[in-house]
């Protein structure tokens, strides 16, 4: 395990089943690392008296909606920010209820690390298997297994070991290689969250915070730079200026770099780069940029500018993908969907439904229809080509959001496994 630079920011999602303690763990992390202001503590105290039994409830720090506090559940994704001397963090508290799986997908899809919580009393349940499978398919860099409420099972090591084995079996069943890092905790009491606990003499690993401060989450710098064009900027540089603007993904891009405008297949060079409106010689992934090209090229919204590097995206009209189906209406072969990829919307038809993951047996089974929250493989023929990679090659360039063409609602999250 390699420590990264002290100023690195990482994004973390807490996932797991209902009442496993996700909100409480985040509250404990913030409280014990001095990341809560006095007025926030006072507000939590008042809310604890109003919505609970009067005891101080750290879960209320992230459960901010009235419905969440009244029902004692997490509904929407809540984000909290804090920093230590070693690193800064963005924490996403995701819902555990099965009907809010799409919210969990939203939080995990942009996270570097997922902390999966399991109630030591109940062990691994179906929603745990669903969330772990989705996090693995979303290719989070690390999966931290926080076996919570260990104080309620008398800190038994055999209970902890059995849960670690069960979660490891989930990852093995889907062929995932995401590292699993288990920690026994009591989020409500703070054991092994920020400070090591005397209740686990048999555990010699780091605390949750100690692990998060040292995880290596550096991106693969060998990827090609990918700039999905969102609009053409004519503001800077006089009447002849055309800056092709968007958010940069993949690798870095510099003045002088050779690039290809796909799907037009035109090769040209970058003559200027502006980052957040200011001239720059270099842009890195995540920057909002505008680039000027050496040649007069017809480029507009939906086009993609690709730099040198491997693997480069391909122009594809047929994709195979892992899908988490989030629609209330079943998905069948022949159904048409709007597919949002980068800055382009295209339509496509489902030509095949592959095997679906049975969350009870952790085996793949043939399927003709997908229902709400199913995880399966699909093949889709596109009406217009897209410039894409596989999800393994790039999380942004390899992901697609499926939209119902009638209701305009989000009905699926797709991770491309093959594009041609």
Summarize the structure.
By secondary structure, the protein is α+β, with helices and mostly antiparallel strands. 18% of the residues lie in helices and 37% in strands.
Query: In terms of per-residue confidence, which ranges show pLDDT below 50 for 5 or more consecutive residues?
Result: 1-7, 63-75
Biggest sheet architecture: 9 strands, antiparallel
Number of helices: 7
**Structural class of the secondary elements?**
alpha+beta
Number of domains: 3
For CATH, the homologous superfamily of the largest domain is named as P-loop containing nucleotide triphosphate hydrolases
Shape: globular
> N- to C-terminal separation?
36 Å
CATH architecture classification of the largest domain? 3-Layer(aba) Sandwich
Radius of gyration: 23 Å
* CATH class categorisation of the largest domain: Alpha Beta
Query: What is the overall pLDDT average?
Result: 85
Features:
single chain; alpha+beta; Rossmann fold; Elongation Factor Tu (Ef-tu), domain 3; 3 domains; nine-stranded antiparallel sheet; six-stranded mixed sheet; 37% strand
